[in-house]
UniProtKB/TrEMBL annotation:
It comes from the Bacteria. This is Protein-L-isoaspartate O-methyltransferase. Its main location: cytoplasm. One of its GO terms (molecular function) is protein-L-isoaspartate (D-aspartate) O-methyltransferase activity. It is an enzyme of class 2 (transferase). GO terms for biological process: methylation; protein repair. Catalyzes the methyl esterification of L-isoaspartyl residues in peptides and proteins that result from spontaneous decomposition of normal L-aspartyl and L-asparaginyl residues. It plays a role in the repair and/or degradation of damaged proteins. It comes from Maribacter cobaltidurans. One of its GO terms (cellular component) is cytoplasm. Belongs to the methyltransferase superfamily. L-isoaspartyl/D-aspartyl protein methyltransferase family. It catalyses: [protein]-L-isoaspartate + S-adenosyl-L-methionine = [protein]-L-isoaspartate alpha-methyl ester + S-adenosyl-L-homocysteine.
Length: 213
């Protein structure tokens, strides 16, 4: 599998579509233009990679819709060298978008099959997260905390307390909260004890599950 001008052209069109849908952050749009999403997907779906849709990956999981990836990344308001904890690596596409935005990424996946597959893929592609951990994202990564930003890419019944405690004061945590559908939720840590919550639209994610598998 390789990247071609045709793929690049389709990515430019996808970025145009995301702008029409309201994404404005230039570095996010540039990351969408650069990251070869078709290489993160099973070859049977590769032809659809630049549609704005989620698709199945291994272990009954999905690669998030590009709009969702762009929306969550924009909400993070990333600055270069921010440390970002990502829960739910999956295909690694969101991870790659964060890396293109110059973040230092710590990412956790609970499905062993996906962890192994994506780990090999990152090496092959030269994507270098600071850490890629097989584990339970509910617990976060206490040894590397606190983080400037935290992003959860699976639907959580509630915001895990461990993740709130691992966010820097002034940091932003973006997480879809709910069961069937989820409300995209932004928590800004305004002081040691206070968080400001803002809710955005409704999205649909696979569930955030406890323990690794
Ligand atoms: N950002 C990914 C989304 C994958 S779907 C992509 O675009 O490819 C969500 C992922 O979260 C799945 O891979 C699932 O296995 C993982 N996940 C669910 N609960 C988790 C947990 N507690 N800790 C870490 N990963 C989890």
């Amino acid at each position: 599998m390789k990247d071609t001008y045709r793929h690049k052209g389709m990515r430019n069109q996808l970025a145009e579509l995301l702008m029409e849908k309201g994404i404005t952050d230039t570095k996010v749009l540039n990351a969408i233009r650069e990251v070869p999403r078709h290489l993160f997907m099973d070859s049977s779906f590769e032809g659809h990679a630049y549609q704005d849709k989620a698709f199945p990956i291994a272990a009954d999981q999905t690669i998030s819709q590009p709009y969702t990836v762009a929306f969550q990344t924009e909400l993070l308001q990333l600055e270069p060298n921010h440390t970002v904890l990502e829960i739910g690596t999956g295909s690694g596409y969101q991870t790659a978008v964060l890396l293109k935005c110059k973040a230092k990424v710590y990412t956790i996946e609970r499905q062993l099959e996906l962890f192994k597959k994506t780990n090999l893929f990152f090496k092959k592609m030269g994507y270098r997260p600071k850490k890629f951990v097989f584990g339970d994202g509910y617990k976060g990564l206490p040894e590397d905390a606190p983080f400037d930003r935290i992003i959860v890419t699976a639907g959580a019944p509630e915001v895990p307390k461990a993740l709130m405690s691992q966010l820097k004061v002034g940091g932003r945590l973006v997480i879809p909260v709910g069961f069937e559908d989820q409300i995209m939720t932004l928590l800004e840590r305004t002081s040691e004890k206070e968080f400001k919550k803002t809710e955005y639209g409704s999205f649909r994610f696979v569930p955030l599950l406890e323990d690794k598998n």
